[in-house]
Design a protein that fits this description.
Blueprint: E1 9-14, E2 19-24, H1 26-32, H2 35-46, E3 60-63, E4 77-82, E5 89-94, H3 98-104, E6 109-113, E7 120-125, E8 128-133, H4 143-153, E9 160-164, H5 167-170, E10 178-180, E11 184-186, H6 191-197, E12 200-206, H7 216-232, H8 237-241, H9 247-254, H10 275-281, E13 283-287, E14 297-305, E15 313-320, H11 322-328, H12 337-350, H13 354-369, H14 388-400, H15 404-409, H16 413-420, E16 428-429, E17 432-433, H17 441-449, H18 460-466, H19 477-494, H20 506-516, H21 522-542, H22 555-558, H23 568-590
Parallel strand pairs: 1-6, 7-12
Antiparallel strand pairs: 1-2, 3-4, 3-6, 4-5, 7-8, 9-10, 9-12, 10-11, 13-14, 14-15, 16-17
Family: Belongs to the AOR/FOR family.
Domain Aldehyde ferredoxin oxidoreductase N-terminal: 9-209
GO molecular function: 4 iron, 4 sulfur cluster binding; electron transfer activity; metal ion binding; oxidoreductase activity, acting on the aldehyde or oxo group of donors, iron-sulfur protein as acceptor
């Protein structure tokens, strides 16, 4: 690590005392690079093990890595915290301008502790930190409005990130998100609720610093080679042209698109919510995260007439990706795109995680059809597949929580099903709602035992698709998933967008790190990834995660996958092997692997 690299500087912010200070933590970044690895170490140091996730004792760590602001698609920031949604480790990643802003402000990480008595937003402009009164912003219905106001009053346009919560975070919905740059999110596991519990409405960061490199000539050579791979090879083309919604028709054809609360894995009207259909009929803009040439963020232009003014229309730009389309589209029986887009816009405005919201609504729709919940429970809303006006009302009620049912739904599908019934069709794994792939056993093991309970932990959905017709033995599957998850710890410590994982292979990563002042070969990186993953699981266990207690929703065994119906006995054998492997990883961490 270069001695003058500002990555080594950690900004600590105490919301209780309204104080801040900076520490040189080069030791952490030299050992763990940054991102996930460094954030994990900093969180472990600061977080009391018995802390309530919604108490002042909880800690938020935002961390960037050595490749941020130096190389293209190294555009992500990692957030670690104790999750109010699962009760153990929370981890979420976002792009936008967040990573560039933190890096150029002169920091490798920002650690937020305590809680404010009154709503505040915190502004970090280079070496100065300001605590600003946010009472006028607290209670605003739309996070879009909050972002627009902060853009007007804060300096640093173009080199600034604005991370803020919506009404859902204020109301402590356990899967509330933090929105940055309008269309990117720290989405899963409830970071927005942690912001809300701390009365932190927003975090604004900007900076105009510069970064050192070890050798300018080598840096330029490595940069150019990565840039060419990103822009001239076919590796990233699909993300630019159609984006992740290209998955809709492919998964529907495979019989792997969760639909109607996974009562089926194909949707008859999937074409109407596909990436191709949206691009042809609604695509208004493509935008990029900072320092990314791919432009994978697709915005639909939804044109709606004003009721009392003929020939006059309001145009709303709405970001769409595969996961929100799955959760708010196929899971809810979408028959056309416009209702889905309006619901997606409402979810964005309130600051909710789209995947969790969609799974909760799908459970509630089925529970209502079965008579487990009533119209009175739903505050007069009647949930039926494809009825988007009802879903928009239900989302508003999840946030405002007028009944006991909505208060339960605001804590996630597992909690709601525990209280009202329907656990067999409540699609949660380790407390987190299912992602959009019913591809086979690897995907569901990934959801259950991945450190984030996310499809992005180890891409089980990808392994499933590669092994159709040749399902691996149950005892071997966990090892394959852990190997992939270990390498991803390296990528998320750099911090590279996982869409670019086929570009950032070990040799290229080593070359990029050398230009940034780190000497790590492919073997060193592999060992580091495994060590970070081991440390992560160790902390998860300390925070209350019990892998042996994780169960699979009954519904996943009822609806066929491309591998056929999942065999419960196979999944139990795979679970046993996975738990044994995780415990060995934890032993390695305790021995200082």
């Amino acid at each position: 690590m270069l001695p003058n690299d500002p990555l080594r500087r950690v900004l600590y912010i105490d919301l209780s005392s309204k104080k801040y200070w900076v520490e040189d933590r080069g030791d952490v970044f030299e050992e763990y690079l940054g991102g996930t690895g460094a954030a994990l170490k900093l969180l472990e140091e600061e977080l009391p093990r018995g802390a309530d996730p919604l108490s002042p004792d909880n800690v938020i760590v935002f961390a960037v890595g050595p490749l941020n602001a130096l190389f293209p698609t190294a555009s992500k920031t990692v957030a670690l915290f104790k999750s109010p949604h699962t009760g153990n480790l929370g981890e979420s990643h976002a792009g936008g301008r967040s990573a560039i802003a933190i890096r150029l402000a002169g920091y490798g990480a920002i650690v937020i502790k305590g809680a404010s008595e009154k709503p505040v937003w915190v502004s970090v402009h280079g070496g100065k930190v300001y605590f600003r009164d946010a009472r006028a912003l607290w209670g605003m219905t739309s996070s879009h409005t909050v972002g627009r106001i902060l853009r007007e009053v804060e300096p640093g346009s173009g080199i600034r990130t604005i991370m803020r919560i919506g009404r859902a975070g204020e109301k402590l919905v356990s899967y509330a998100c933090v929105t940055t740059e309008t269309y990117r999110h720290f989405g899963r596991l409830g970071l927005g609720a942690v912001f809300g519990s701390k009365k932190l409405k927003a975090l604004v960061v900007s900076g105009r610093g510069s970064l050192p490199v070890a050798d300018r000539r080598v840096y330029r050579e490595v940069y150019d080679s990565i840039y060419r791979l990103l822009t001239e090879s076919p590796l990233m083309r699909k993300y630019h042209e159609i984006g992740t919604p290209i998955n809709v028709l492919h998964l529907n054809e495979l019989g792997a698109l969760p639909s109607l609360n996974l009562q089926q894995a194909r949707l008859e009207t999937a074409e109407k919510i596909s990436g191709e259909y949206l691009a042809q009929n609604y695509l208004g803009r493509r935008v990029s995260c900072a320092h990314c040439p791919v432009a994978c963020i697709h915005l639909a232009a939804l044109r709606e007439p004003y009721e009392e003014e003929p020939y006059f229309y309001k145009t709303t730009f709405i970001g769409y990706d595969y996961e929100p389309i799955y959760a708010l589209g196929s899971m809810l029986g979408a028959r056309e795109p416009e209702g889905m887009l309006r619901l997606l816009d409402a979810v964005e405005a309130y600051g909710l995680d789209a995947m969790s919201t969609g799974v909760v609504l799908a459970w509630a729709t089925e529970a209502y059809s079965r008579g487990l919940i009533t119209k009175e429970d739903l505050a007069g809303v009647e949930l039926r597949w494809g009825d988007y006006e009802a879903y928009i009302q239900a989302v508003r009620n999840i946030v405002e929580q007028p009944t006991d049912l909505y208060r339960a739904m605001a804590r996630g599908v597992a909690h709601a099903a525990e209280k009202y019934g329907g656990r067999e069709f409540a699609l949660a794994f380790g407390g987190n709602e299912m992602a959009g792939y019913h591809t086979g056993p690897a995907a569901h093991l990934n959801y259950a035992f991945g450190a984030r309970h996310s499809h992005l932990d180890s891409a089980g959905y990808s392994l499933d698709q590669k092994t159709i017709g040749k399902t691996p033995p149950a005892e071997e599957l966990p090892q394959k998933l852990v190997e992939e998850e270990s390498w991803r710890q390296v990528l998320t410590s750099l911090v590279v967008c996982l869409f670019a994982r086929e570009v950032y292979k070990p040799d290229i990563v080593s070359s990029a790190l050398r230009a940034a002042g780190f000497e790590l070969g492919p073997d060193d990186l592999a060992k580091l990834g495994r060590r970070i993953l081991a440390n992560k699981y160790r902390l998860k266990l300390e925070l209350g995660f019990k892998p042996e207690g994780v169960s699979f929703p009954q519904r996943i065994f009822e609806t066929p996958t491309p591998h056929g119906k999942l065999d419960p006995a196979y999944m139990e054998r795979a679970k046993t092997a996975y738990v044994e492997l995780l415990l060995r990883l934890v032993e390695e961490a305790q021995k200082g692997y």
